[in-house]
Amino acid sequence: MLRSVILAASRSARVKGLVQHAPVSRGVVRRFVAGEGTEDAVRGTGALQASGLLVTLDHLGEDTTEQGQAEAAVKAYVTVLGRLAEEGLAAGAEVSLKLTAVGLDIARDLATANAARIVEAAGEAGTTVTLDMEGSATTDATLSVLAELRRAEPSVGAVVQAMLRRTEGDCRDLATPGSRVRLCKGAYREGPDVAFASRAEVDASYARCLGVLMAGAGYPMVATHDPALVGLAERLVVRTGREAGSYELQMLFGVRPDEQRRLARAGHHVRVYVPYGHEWYGYLVRRLAERPANLVFFARALATRS
Ligand code: FDA
Predict the structure, then answer these.
(1) pTM higher than 0.90, yes or no?
(2) How far apart are CA 142 and CA 138, in angstroms?
(3) Rounded CA gap, 220 and 206, in Å?
(4) β-strand pairing of 270-276 with 219-223
(5) What whole-number distance in Å separates Cα of residue 149 and Cα of residue 144?
(6) Of the N and C termini of the chain, which has fewer Cβ atoms inside 10 Å?
(7) Mind listing the pLDDT tens digit for each residue in 172-182?
């Protein structure tokens, strides 16, 4: 309920302006976002890798409506991939890409061609790409672009959202040999026709999907901070006889960092999703909406009005 209120309020231009410019924002942004520039991303990647963690970099931006903006996003990814290779960090750092950042809302073919350029640059750098999943209106398009990209580069990763009713079926389709599939709960506001409404239903769906992916032939990427689901993943690893390196646990930058390091020390491959760039607002709102305690941040930002 609270989550819906925050997500709805965040769409107001007035709320966006107040939050972006409130002094309290700076500290909160720094907790969840590595910085605004390429070098911030490279530095952050180096620091995480030094503590035994893998990285996926997300250049912030989504819902692009102009071709020039989509082109800028492609260039940002190509640049950061080149820098990761130069610094010897690419083997432990892939990139996560939102198709709407590279033009999905303009034309599907444009987004496919732009994503293919990033996939090619990732290949040259010695790493790969995962396609983030956005709102349910984009699920079919994202999965069809994924299939097209995988024809040239099978390592391109998929993301599925346990909150969607369709996802258990998508997991069965995607659990094929070599298929990298990130399972998350889902961060977008969805209607009851397509999504489970209660936390308990989403968690139960997550557990079912995880069972399908872990038992399947693909490469599951278990993206959650939920201790119960991380525990379930650890049990399924044992039950299905998976070795380290045949699956990953994934968490977001700034969320449960001690647990990330503990899991890596326990022998799991742990990847941290690291966002960077100027367009941090939409990302930050989704993170804050996930925890009611964070409402305090919104209230303070709106009260400061500067
Ligand atoms: P949830 O938010 O339900 O929290 C469950 C429990 O986890 C809490 O009760 C608490 O115990 C613990 N917890 C959560 N946050 C915590 C915090 N800040 N501090 C301490 N404990 C905390 N979404 C999407 O729609 N498309 C995508 O492509 C992606 N990609 C993605 C990649 C990665 C690597 C991750 C980790 C997540 C995503 N997501 C995503 C976001 C995802 O869908 C979801 O919104 C968040 O991960 C929050 O859900 P949790 O599974 O963490 O559980």
Answers:
(1) yes
(2) 6
(3) 13
(4) unpaired
(5) 9
(6) N
(7) 999 999 999 99
